[in-house]
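User: Hi! I'm working on a homework problem where we have to compare a predicted structure to a textbook description. Could you give me the structure for the chain below?
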Amino acid sequence: MSRIQRSLRIEKDLDNLIDQLAKFKGLSYNQVTNDLLRKAIAEAIKELKQKQQEEKEQQESYLKQIQITKETMRRFFLDNPNYLNEVKKLLTITPQQPGETIYHSVSIEYMDLERYGNGELAEAFLKDPLGFVLDMTAVAYDLLQEVHSSGSFDRYDFVVRVSDKAKLLPTVGVVDARKVLTKPGNLVIVKGIVSRVSFKTVCTRAAYTCMNCGERFFVENEETNALFALPAPIPSVCNRCQRKGFLKFDKQSSNYRDVKTIMLTESVEEHESETPQSEPLLVYLTGDLVFDKRIAPGRTVRVIGITSVERIKRRGSVEDRVFIQAISVEVIDKLLEEIELSEEDKRWIQQEMKQPDFLDRLVKSIAPNLYDRPLDPQRGNLTLADVKEVICYQIVGPCPIDDPEFSIPFEELRPLHVHLLGDPGLGKTQLLIFVSKLLPRAQYVTLGSTKAGLGCITYQDKELGWVVELGALPLADRGICCIDEVEKIASGRKIRGKAPTDVLHEVMSIGRHTVHKSRFHIMLPARCAILAASNPRGGRYDPELAFIDNVTPAFKETVLARFDFHFVIRDIPTREIDKEVAKRCIMSSNLKPPYTIEQLQKIFSYIKKYVPKPRIPEDVAEYTSKRFAEIREQYRESGAIPLTYRQVKTIKIAAMCRARLLGRVEVTREDVERVFNILLGTLEQIAKTPEGAIDVIYAGAGLTPRQRELRGRLLQLIPEDQEILDTVVIEKLEQEGYTEEEIRNMIARLIKDQELWEPYQGFLRRYRAKR
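Assistant: Happy to help. Predicted structure tokens:
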């Protein structure tokens, strides 16, 4: 049955009922309908009057409540001289330049609101946060006018904020735009990491002049207030003559406000999976918060704000975007050296550092659930404890990093960089996650865990303007960046011909990331240590191949050479070791390490804050240089290079880290010898040639001294300008002592590396060098 048919049927049934009622009362059809209509109108008028009376009573009650609350707010300022004095101090702030806008604010603690009177101010803030802030601002503004009527400023340049340093308000731990919004206008407290920042200027009060009648008027968004800076609507007609197309925008007479937009994402501690599962959340900052330099990418903040939704046009459709308008922002993360230590903590740490087994206890507390197994039972004598010790060197660094402008050469304070190459399932990921949770400014990153990758991305947003979103390395500035499965990241999609890991070269060399794009020239500080872990090429480490041949080809040699230590961890079945590893896994929940995570943080904080840069005495420097020369001399005749001059810098920095870790102001021979032992142990793993020599060139290029010599002879014998028979070259080199197999293998390698080519079968020719 259609809608029209149903309406006709209802109308027919109603007519039948009215006819029956008219017959029952002896009246006509029109008399009955008029009587019913009068009664319905009278009932409707009665209900309307009753509703109006209720609305009037509610309005009077609301106005009375507002008046009572404002009076309470006024008494709150008068009874709290600290806040009143802060309001009065605003009059002493003057612009440094003509026309400069100064944003003023007074921050009130929520705990003081809760304690004042019977807590009605705190209750009012929780019920209507926006109304409370605006009323509190109006009261403070009136008090300011009473003190000095001539010292007024724009009403939108002043706001009263509510902070919560006592953490009395519940915090939403995991930031998620899909879950934060329950109802627009509600109070919400969220915590997250600032992943990107953008700025824009909004015209909040637009001036227009009509070119037809000369009328000059202003247009302002009704919802613009001390917190919200919303763009003024664009009028279509003149207010006076109502003509279209004659309005001219007056830039000079219009008012503008700055808006800072930050994006919050969850931290590693807030989710169990490796990849964040929540949707980033936008937060708008106005007033003095725009110029707070502490609210920067990489910092963890706690935001008290108001939920809201804005409608935006994107790709031809209208979308609703959730955001938070910030009332106050508190930076809650601290650098390791900024952790507060009591006098009792300092005395305890000083006593612990005097113990002879202090360093061993420190190492055993790093990832205690991992058994300190030998890294490679068949080659070298290093254990996982040596890896943990070097990580301790990374954490403390050689000296404090106090210069944000790089006036001190980065090489003098460069942190150490460590690469773990190991078979799957040996605890590399657990070690990286432990370090990332131990340090406040550490970043854990793996493939797909961050949109910005390791460096940063820049793009233009229609609403937000130009946006710079930082990746893991800038976010880990003055901390450690833990990069898991770095070989998968290196094999990712290239951008402008560069692999995702190419950014590591600049960061590890000079401690910053430079971006050149469009009109952007950005230098982002990234003074962080790198702790990278990767799986071998093919899934298992093959000791018969060179180290470089076990690493994925996408991981460039130039980046690998920047790491100070390369540790190879192999999974070789050994009865006693397997038994201990299995036992540690089973009993991991019952382990009691020498130091808890909180104690480790305090110890490292004390060292970074109070232990200065160690001095290297002349006798220690002489011993180091002599030891270095002896090791190089040991393999001189074989042509192998066991150490390069880059390793001298590694030895110096690591020895300074060890001395600082033990609380010493001078580096000792013991420190240098310990670093030499660890470094030579790693070279025993990665740089040992088939002939038994230690050669770092073999580790990085895969060529033994004999193969390097053969390569040089081949490039000498094969000309650039003409072809030569391969049999002629092979015959000459066989006379010099090389076998045919060696020669043909090297020729194949040079052809693969595009140093030689075959113009015809059996002929060789060298590529012409670029000049």
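For your comparison, note the following. The longest strand covers residues 187-210. Residues 193 and 267 are 6 Å apart (CA to CA). Good luck with the assignment!
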